[in-house]
Amino acid sequence: MRVRLKGDAICTLFLLVALCSLLYSQLEHLVPVGNKELTQKKPSVTSKTFSDSRAPWRPMPAEAKEPRLQVTPVLRRREVANKRVQTTTPSPLSDSAFNFKGYLLNKDNRNFNLLINQPKKCRRTPGGPFLLIAIKSVVEDFDRREIVRKTWGREGLVNGEQIQRVFLLGTPKNRTALVTWETLIHQESQTYRDILLWDFMDTFFNLTLKEIHFLNWAAEFCQNVKFIFKGDADVFVNVENIIDFLERHDPTEDLFVGDIIYNARPIRVQKSKYYIPETMYGLSIYPAYAGGGGFLLSSHTMRKLSRACKEVELFPIDDVFLGMCLQRINLKPILHEGFKTFGIVKPSAAPHLQTFDPCFYKDLMVVHSLKVAEIWLMWNLLHSPHLSCTQKKQVKKPFQWKKKAQTTMQASPLR
Ligand SMILES: *[C@@H]1O[C@H](CO)[C@@H](O)[C@H](O)[C@H]1NC(C)=O
Ligand SMILES: *[C@@H]1O[C@H](CO)[C@@H](O)[C@H](O)[C@H]1NC(C)=O
């Protein structure tokens, strides 16, 4: 009897020890798994589409700790996660994941100083420039600015019209080499007189600030401009076609033309770079907006938008924000086939042609997502005196202007 009792006790004790060590190993195992996942996710989730999107998207703190959900109830886990984010110094993870709460809290902080101005930009020619080209760039992208200056962004006369150019910059996000960048940008500004630099951090979600500040700048320092092209530095722009199009419009009337996106729905998937929670935008559809790669507006519309945007609450996606400003002044943006701000979809756009065929670019106004070398090559091929586009006749349906099809076909200098 005593022997059996002793045996049972030993057995129970052994089982208890085994259970405890099993639990312990499980607990120890769970924590590193969560951490490992975080560190592994970082390099793989990066943004690709936008040149200015220097902020790689990382999972939000709550979703990143998914593995531990099985151990503690959901509510407590969220509390723990939140506390950790608040008490510890901001880790690279919580730092770069978009903080909607912080954004909403700081939304009224929307006036930043202009650190580098070009007050005489639009005063060099008597009647003011015909077209002001405004290009979003980041300080670090010196090579992109150089190629734009040497190709489609050239200042001076094009087809008899005066063109001026500015680059729109914020302060670099990476503060490590700030002094070097500062020196560069001041030097660059002195050399080219085309830099506008504002005192906000140049991040993807601050592009809306860039939009507002540029419109205000144009309304103050460039009232005499006739038209404005605003776009990215990684686009190819056929300035001749744009001038040809604009010459048939009145700068004192409303004009807003681009690659217009209608009925876009806010993305409610947290992992997406464009995720917008319902607390930030409750409606199910965005107003019509132009793809940020490039669009045109008249001087008149610029002034109206500059005023209207002041009354619209900040929204982290700049294209959509501008759509909200347009909606406020009740202006319908016009879709134009010549704007390919999402790049060229080969089969439908030009089934017979290579996208690298200059004759194809001849008919377009803006093409997005090009490499520096491609922009340079395309511009040089298009301006070569030897260019002859016999292939064009193969295209079944030739390019047409959306609205004024007849007049354009006759007036076009292309053929
Ligand atoms: C910041 O800039 C420094 C110097 O140019 C560079 O070594 C570093 O990798 C950059 N950091 C990030 C996060 O890009
Ligand atoms: C925008 O810029 C401001 C000022 O530099 C900065 O405090 C803020 O964190 C930036 N916001 C985002 C979303 O990057």
TrEMBL record:
It is a single-pass type II membrane protein. Residues 1-25 form the signal peptide. One of its GO terms (molecular function) is UDP-glycosyltransferase activity. GO terms for biological process: poly-N-acetyllactosamine biosynthetic process; protein O-linked glycosylation. It comes from the Eukaryota. InterPro entries: Glyco_trans_31. This is Hexosyltransferase. The lineage of its organism: Eukaryota, Metazoa, Chordata, Craniata, Vertebrata.
